[in-house]
Structures are given as C-alpha cells and as structure tokens.
Here is the input.
Amino acid sequence: MESEALLPIEQERLVTRIAWRIRQSLDLGNILDTTVAEVRELLDTDRVVVYRFSTDWTGVVTTEAVLPGWPALIHQQFEDVCFTSNYIHPYQEGRVGNISNIESAPIQPCHREMLQRFAVRANLVVPILQGVTLWGLLILHHCRGPRPWTDLEINLLQDLALQVGIAIQQSELYAQVQRLNSTLETQVQERTRELRQILEFTDVLSQITHRVRDSLDERHVLQTAVEELGQVLRVDYCGAALYNLEHTKAVMHYEYLRPQVRSLLGEALILEEWGGTLPQPEQTRLLMPIQDDRGVLGYLLLGHHSNRAFSPSEQQLGRQVANQCGIALRQARLYQSAQTQVQELSHLNQMKDEFLSAVSHELRTPMTNMKLAIRLLKLNLGERELEAQTKGEQYLKILQDECDREIHLINNLLDLQRLDSGQFTPQWDQIRIQEWLPAVLTPFQERIREREQGFHLDLSADLPPFVGDVSSLERVIVELVNNACKYTPSQGRISASLSCREGQFQLRVCNTGVEIPQGELEKVFEKFYRVPSADPWKQGGTGLGLALVQKLVQYMGGEISVTSSGNQTCFHVHVPNHNPG
Ligand code: ADP
Here is the structure.
C-alpha cells in the first residue's frame, strides 16, 4: 500500500514545510487549503477536510481537498445527532477517531449512515484544539475501500493538527491586532479632527471676541456674533433674542439664516420650545444665555434641520460666544448710557448758559430804564414846577414799573426755589370769582389795547365762591394771560374762560398767532426752557413762568396741560375748589 511507503523523514518534511508556511502567512484560508491538499496527496487518500465548530456544536466544512469522482463536502453541515453525546468529549481530550472499515466498526448506526452518505469507507479524525477549546477537526476520508491507518499516519496528522492550531491562533491574534489597529486609527483620526476643530474654534472665538469687543454699538456686536457663529458652525439658523425693559419676554432682534429658513425677527421667544434654559446635549437646537454679572440679558440660538447633534466643542464655542456677547453688550450699554448722560449734561449746561444770559438781560433792562429815569428826574428838578411835576410823575411811573418787573422776576425765582424745597406756604382765602377776576385782569387792559390785540373773558354764570390758595390762583392766571399778551401778535386774539364742574375749577387761556411744535409742548413746563425762535416780537423771558405755574397748580392739587394747533395755543388748568357748600 502507498501509505506504508510514507517514511518518517517525509512526514517530518511535510510538517516542517507546513509549519514554515504557517509562519510565513497570516492567511488562515490559504494555510488550510495547502495543508489539506498536501496531506491528501502525501497519504494518497480520497478526501481531506477541515471541519469547524460553532458555539452550539453545529459545524461546517471550511476547507476540502477531494479527488474527482467523490462527493464534495465543502460548506456542508453535518447533522449527526449522536455526535454531541458520543464524540465531543473524547475529541476535547485530544483523542483521535480511527475507523479502518465503516462496515465493521462498532459505531452508532446514525453515524455509519452519515458516513456512507459521503461514500466514506475508512476515516481518521484528529481534533484541532485551541488551548482547551475544541476548535474543529482535521478529517481524512478513504472512499475507494477500507484502510487501516498506520501509527505514522496518525502521528503525522496529530502534528499537523497542532500546527493548524498554531496557525489559527496566530491568525486570530493577527486579526485582533488588525481590529485594534483600525480602532486605534479611527480614534486617532477622530481626535485629530476634534483637535483641528478646537484649534479652528479657538481662532474663530478670538476673531469674534476682537470684533465684538472693538464695537460699542449693540447692534453691530450682536449682528457680527450671529453671522460669524452661524457661518462657522454651518447651521441653518443663528439668532440673538434680547429681553425687553420689563424683562418679561425675550424678542428676536438679530439673525443669520440660510435661504428657505423661516425668520423669527420680532417674535417673542418661547423658551420651552427651545429646550429649557440650558442646552441639552444631542440636540439639533441650542439655547445659550447671554449674561453678565447682573443676570440674563437674552439668548443666542442655534438650530439646524438635520439630525446632526452639536459636538461638545461646538456647544462650547456657542457658550463662549454668548459670554463674549454678554460682556460686550454690557460695555455697549454702559457707553450708551454715558453718552446719554453727556448729552443731558451738555443740554443742561446750554440751558444754564441761556438762563444766565436771559436773567442778566432781564435784570439789566429794568436797571437801565431805572437809571435813565433817575437821570431824567434829576435834570427835571431844575425845570418849571408844573412841567416838572408832569414829567416827574411819568419818570416815577417808569421807576415803579421797572422795579415791579425786577421784583416779579426775583419773586419767581424765590417761589420756585421754595416750591422745590417744600417751603412754600399757601394762603387760603375765599373769593367770588365774578368780582375778583375782572380786577385781576384790569392791569392788562391798557397793554392789550396798545398792542391792538382782541381780548374775551367768559365766566360761567353759576360759579360758586372759590375756596383755596387764592394768591397762587392769581399768580397762575396772571402768568398765563401775561404770556398770551407777550406771544400774541398785533390783531391776534386772546381769550380766557373759567367754569366749575364737579368741584373742579376749569381755567382755559388761549391765544392766536404762535403755534408751539408738538415735540416742544411738554418741554415748555421745564425750568429755563424757551421754545427756540418762538419769540418773534423779542418780548424776552427766562423760561421760569410756566415752570412756576405748573408747580403752583400741582401744589393746589390740580393739573395743567397745553395744546397747540391751527395757529392757536391753549393752556388748560384744573384745580379743586375746597368750597364746603
Ligand atoms: P418765558 O419767560 O420765556 O415766557 P415761560 O416759562 O413762561 O417762559 O414760557 C416758556 C416758553 O413757552 C416761552 O418761551 C414760549 O416760547 C412758550 N410759550 C409760553 N406761553 C405761550 C403762549 N401763550 N403762546 C405761545 N407760546 C408760549
């Protein structure tokens, strides 16, 4: 028989060759292919296969060398019900299955049937072990007839199974190393990408910080931030919402968005919709508070429509930009309020200058007139008696009038100061308006006639007696009528009316000729304020009259307002009447 021709030397050579190949190659499939082919040829048998077990002890033929004419078993799964109970244990112990004749061997019928199905007449089975684990089997099938296996052949197969075991271990280790390598490589790539992104983001953050901090303009700060952040993170939406003054809602003011994305400008932000106050990881929306040391000023929002989650470094960049915005915003707002203060101060300064020049002028004019009257009075002393008396009376009147003007101005200043410091004392009295008011207005008659103005007084017939601070009421009426005379042109009309409703006295003083622009209406009650270029007849003034009037009215528990339209200006005063009846 050919098998008997196998010499130990040939066996050793074969084992050495296969062992060498195993060391050369890491391709298990290749090693097994050549092993089964060489063994089949050397032992001149009909089929050599490698059978590999799965964890449930089913298995499959993974490698095969078979002579033509015999059925091929490659990829077949044996279904031998008695295999698990009868064979696994001996194989696990490394024992060899040696059957020289299937027909006469003491094997289970099911086993015999299965072998006969594959035309096997004699077989030799050697376990392939991985440590203590049974990995598979190296199987020789002799099909052309029975065959007693020699010890030499059995030894050879055992040696080979050992080598195959080494090859399997080696290739599994190799595969493991490969897997580790590729995981490591992916990790390195991922980390490199992250580091690159962090570097890029650090760069971007420093650019945004510079741009944002360089600006003291709130709009520029936030518009720059949303645009740059939106572009760097390649999001569909990036917006900045700011709280209103009452801090009740945050409204979207600035945004960067891709085409087709809906704008949220002007809309109040619903925080719950954007995921609460803090950004949640793995979201396609991010909400980051813009805050400074005093609290939250608004929010930066990021959103995109894909499912891509914001990475930790993207979230960090967003938070850092929001922090920078908070600082820059506080800076811009401080600057803005400082600017407003500067403007207010310069306005006050201008008003003070104008007041000083007006007061000086107002104080000097009566003085000049008085000096002139005194000089004339002196000259007049030498003249004839009758003439001297007439002229003297005239000059004394001038002196009297100018003194009155001076005293009026000084009184206004003092009263305002008393009202401001709470030291004003009202003088309560009771009067009948019907008799009292015409007397108060008498001094204006001559002036109105001289300036050819029309005057009309309208008093309700059923006016009750007025009980209250009569002297303040007189100051209010005199000041308003005086202003009406001052600012009404010749041929213009002045009207005053007084009525009483539900315990309130209602005074109205109107005049034609000068209209106060709407924007200036409220300012006329400010101290020292004079409407620019609204004194065409150069009547002069200090801007104190209406401030005093308003203070007095408020002191009496009333209100004053002004309307001006259609070439007519009206002052409306309401004061309570403390008349018990
Ligand atoms: P002034 O000493 O300048 O008259 P007021 O406080 O009395 O100061 O008035 C403030 C400004 O309001 C005036 O300078 C004038 O421009 C405007 N004004 C006041 N009363 C009238 C009025 N009856 N008609 C038109 N303008 C008026």
About this structure: Residues 483-484, 487, 511, 514, 516, 524, 530-531, 534-535, 541-547, 569 surround adenosine-5'-diphosphate (CB under 6 Å). The longest strand covers residues 133-142. The chain is about 50% helix and 20% strand.
